[in-house]
């Protein structure tokens, strides 16, 4: 229990960790909404999966395959 409390206080709920989590959520939510609203900007191979998988699933899979750096770069291109 002491270890759990320590980790929660010093790691999981640390303000810096929470800031980074909010930043990641903002990036992913922005990318998801943009790609769902404008699927024509998705890579062709992702667009090709939409009829079978559905738009939202194809976008989720695309986002899940992104590295942090790639996602941030995509976000910065879309939201300069």
From TrEMBL:
One family name in Pfam for this protein: HD_assoc
Gene Ontology MF, one: hydrolase activity
Lineage top rank: taxon: Bacteria
Domain Phosphohydrolase-associated, residue spans: 2-77
UniProt keyword list: Hydrolase
Name of protein: Deoxyguanosinetriphosphate triphosphohydrolase
Source organism of the structure: Thermus islandicus
Taxonomic lineage of the native organism: Bacteria, Thermotogati, Deinococcota, Deinococci, Thermales
């Amino acid at each position: 229990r002491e270890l759990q409390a320590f980790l929660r206080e010093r790691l999981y709920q640390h303000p810096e960790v929470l800031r980074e989590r909010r930043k990641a959520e903002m990036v992913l939510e922005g990318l998801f909404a943009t790609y769902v609203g404008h699927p024509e900007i998705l890579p062709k191979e992702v667009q090709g999966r939409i009829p079978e998988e559905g738009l939202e699933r194809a976008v989720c899979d695309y986002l899940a395959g992104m590295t942090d750096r790639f996602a941030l770069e995509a976000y910065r291109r879309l939201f300069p």
